[in-house]
Design a protein that fits this description.
Elements: H1 2-16, H2 39-43, E1 46-53, E2 59-68, E3 73-82, E4 90-94, E5 111-113, E6 119-126, E7 129-136, E8 142-146, E9 150-157, E10 163-171, H3 172-185, E11 203-205, E12 208-210, E13 212-215, E14 220-223, E15 231-236, E16 242-244, E17 266-272, E18 279-284, H4 290-294, E19 298-302, E20 311-312, E21 323-328, E22 334-340, E23 346-352, E24 358-363, E25 367-369, E26 380-381, E27 385-392, E28 395-403, E29 409-413, H5 417-426, E30 430-435, E31 441-447, E32 459-464, H6 480-485, E33 489-494, H7 502-522, E34 531-535, H8 538-549, E35 555-558, H9 565-570, H10 576-586, H11 595-601, E36 614-619, H12 627-635, E37 639-644, H13 654-673, H14 683-695
Helix pairs in contact: 7-8
Pfam families: Peptidase_S9 (PF00326)
GO molecular function, one term: serine-type peptidase activity
Keywords: Aminopeptidase, Hydrolase, Protease, Signal
Length: 703
């Protein structure tokens, strides 16, 4: 599979050579014989995750995930490989479509090993069915273990590996019947109905379009009947016989929720060494509230749950550091922990519990963990080595073996080798650091473009978080490497720890942007008069704030709405719940209670403050909450708005990702370089933008 994938990518890159400045989907500017990076390559990166070592430490299991633009879907596959690298990966079976979080991210996919190391067990999604499958490590067979009328929520193996327990909710038939009954009788409007959304099968859940409901105080969307309680069952793996579990036979709760003594503080992570019975803990001692959530947890060890005293790690790499993952080295003498710095660099250490000594294992300029974009998780760990997914701004994900004692690194599996080669040959990414006038330190990943003529290149900025292989910033919508290859330098800025006050947060983001432009402009790296911005979520909020209050951006692109009165209407049935969110995150009461703050934060009250062109590429799930300011901007030819059906907070459909990337590239080439794609299919797009140009003459420094 991956041999073919590499050859396809190489052929695609060669085919794209010589297209010149006429950019088509997946195209990139390049000279004959010179490597390039296409938009389609960014969409179809192979991600690696769910890394887990076998009980004897000889094998590692992992899952790959790759988008297919052609079929507008994702393919997942499970592999095993010798930890010592003595053999290539062995493909065991398909995992179907990845499950997703309510925000659109690929959800973690747990994998379990049989105690004898002969099988791996995992959930697979086929045609809207979530089942448990197992695959023989020798590659001899892959088979379903659980094919229940309902989708599997959780599963676990018995200690001897003879039985598998699992939980389900409502049956698939019951869910479909409930959806159809609502469709036929009419949907009763209460606070669980997402107002403004399509009411029938409007979002993807568990491999199918499903009717959605708002659940709990986080106002997240889940499928209809999601709140059906768990029904636990067990299957005998030798006979296949399934029986329901009695209440007294249910699996024990996870260690995190098992009720450690409250005097220790809030326990945020637990790792148990099953050999010794010891627990490694990440603890926030005795604090509550949002500020406590921002504090770095302490690393500690507990001999047993009944122990009255914690053994704390007091070495310098532990104290006051943002520790994000913990796992025991087999044997129970050392805790392996990960520190994720504010600039998203990750480092791994070993804590020798008996002596208290801490030994560095590896330091990375990017991510080194178990895979995953936002929260990489722990590496697979064997007695001698870690197996980790590594990625950095200029290097797509690959699987590496890292010796625990020496830190020696070896590549086990590199499905993105062709893209990595093209990145290395064509886009010299570098990390930069600077300080603003208030003394705040910032960091970012800079993609320099080659100057065209005597002027330095323009700059595009994405502000929020720069983790691993960036592709397109948080949300993957602004193709950083292709922007640089098309003559627009790109900068991803890591937001430092942010204040609770929304205005202070946004002003900090404004200062980061303005000081970055001043810094790069003073070096002659960019033209400070031609700057664009883009962002999702908090990044969109900072981009819109800069469009209202900074003279730096000349064009922006956002993919989520910002706070406005329309959202208060759409979430009005949640009353105090949504009011509490407004107060917590934005310090807003009702428009009558805090009129000046509403005016300061929301563009609705004065769209005239936005004097630069705005491209909005929104998800169907969210765009309605910004219509009160979007519509005036559209009518005044100051915004061009696109909405993508059936998408949540972060878009994930491959064709949507490709379209968003391409339009953002076209947008910033138009406004910052004064260039158009020669593709006649885009003539209407450029006609609209020309009309905007005539309405916003002050935004055209690039022309």
């Amino acid at each position: 599979m991956f041999g073919n994938m590499t050859s396809r990518r190489v052929c695609f890159a060669v085919a794209a050579v010589g297209l010149g400045l006429a950019v088509h989907a997946g195209g990139a500017v390049s000279s004959p014989g010179i490597a390039s990076v296409s938009i389609r390559q960014l969409v179809e990166v192979v991600d690696i995750g769910s890394v887990s070592a076998s009980p004897d430490g000889r094998w590692v299991a992992f899952r790959t995930e790759r988008a297919s633009v052609e079929r507008n879907t994702y393919d997942t596959a499970w592999y095993v490989q010798p930890v010592d690298g003595s053999g290539p990966p062995r493909r065991l079976g398909e995992g179907g479509a990845p499950l997703r979080t309510t925000g659109g991210l690929s959800a973690r996919a747990p994998v379990l090993w049989s105690p004898d190391g002969r099988w791996i067990f995992y959930r697979a999604v086929f045609a809207g069915r979530v089942e448990v499958w197992r695959a023989a490590v020798d590659g001899s067979r892959t088979e379903p273990v659980v094919q229940d009328p309902a989708n599997v929520r959780q599963f676990s193996l018995s200690a001897d590996g003879s039985a598998l327990t699992y939980s389900v909710g409502a049956t698939r038939e019951a869910v479909r019947d409930a959806e159809r009954a609502e469709y036929d009788r009419g949907v009763h409007i209460d606070r669980t109905v997402p107002l403004g959304d399509d009411l029938y099968r409007s979002g993807f859940h568990e491999g199918r379009l499903a009717t959605q409901r708002l659940v709990d105080n986080e106002l997240e969307r889940f499928p209809l009947l999601h709140q059906e309680p768990d029904h636990w069952k067990a299957v005998d793996l030798a006979t296949g016989v399934i029986h329901a579990l009695a209440a007294d036979a249910l699996p024990a709760k996870s260690a995190v929720t098992a009720g450690f003594p409250k005097r220790f503080g809030k326990i945020v992570a637990v790792a148990e060494d099953h050999g010794s019975g010891h627990f490694a803990l990440l603890v926030r001692p005795g604090h509550e509230g949002r500020e406590a959530e921002r504090s770095s947890p302490e690393l500690a060890m507990l001999h047993t749950k009944a122990s009255r005293r914690l053994t704390r790690c007091t070495a310098a790499p532990c104290v006051g550091k943002p520790i994000t993952n913990i796992v025991w080295r087999p044997g129970g003498a050392e805790v392996v922990f990960t520190v994720t710095a504010p600039d998203n660099r990750q480092s791994i250490f070993r804590w020798k519990v008996a002596s208290g000594a801490v030994v560095p294992v590896v330091a990375s300029s990017g991510q080194v963990g178990g895979g995953g974009r936002w929260e990489p998780g722990s590496c697979g760990v064997s007695p001698d080595a870690l197996v980790c997914v590594t990625a950095r701004a200029d290097r797509p994900p690959r699987l590496e073996r890292i010796e625990l004692d020496s830190g020696k690194r070896d590549v086990l599996f590199d499905p993105n080798e062709a893209l990595a080669h093209n990145m290395a040959q064509s886009v010299p990414v570098r990390e930069i650091h600077w300080v603003d006038a208030q003394g705040t330190r910032f960091s970012g990943q800079f993609y320099p473009a080659k100057p065209q003529g005597h002027k330095p290149p323009p700059l595009f900025i994405a502000y929020y978080r720069c983790s691993g292989f960036l592709r397109g910033g948080v949300g993957d919508e602004w193709p950083l490497a292709p922007l640089a290859l098309h003559g627009i330098s790109a900068l991803c800025i890591n937001a430092p720890p942010t204040p609770s006050d929304a205005v202070k947060r946004y002003r900090q983001g404004q200062s980061a942007v303005e000081s970055a432009v001043a810094y790069l402009g003073s070096r002659g790296d960019i033209d400070p008069d031609r700057v664009g911005m883009g962002g999702l979520s908090f990044g969109a909020e900072v981009a819109m704030w800069n469009a209202m209050y900074s003279r730096v951006p000349r064009a922006i692109s956002v993919s989520t709405p910002v706070v406005s009165p329309m959202a208060r209407t759409l979430f009005g049935l949640w009353g105090d719940v949504y009011a509490s969110r407004l107060k917590r995150f934005w310090q807003l009461g009702s428009p009558k209670e805090t009129p000046e703050r509403w005016r300061l934060l929301s563009p609705y009250y004065d769209v005239g403050r936005i004097k630069v062109p705005v491209l909005m590429q929104m998800s169907e799930q969210e765009y309605r909450s910004g219509l009160d300011y979007m519509v005036p901007l559209i009518r005044e030819h100051r915004a061009d708005v696109y909405v993508f059906p059936n998408e949540p907070h972060q878009k994930f459909q491959p064709r949507h990702k490709l379209a968003v990337y391409q339009r953002n590239l076209d947008w910033f080439r138009f406004w910052l370089l004064g260039m158009k794609d020669a593709d006649p299919a885009k003539s209407e797009q450029y006609a609209r933008w020309e009309k905007m140009r005539q309405s916003l003459p002050g935004a055209l420094a690039g022309w």
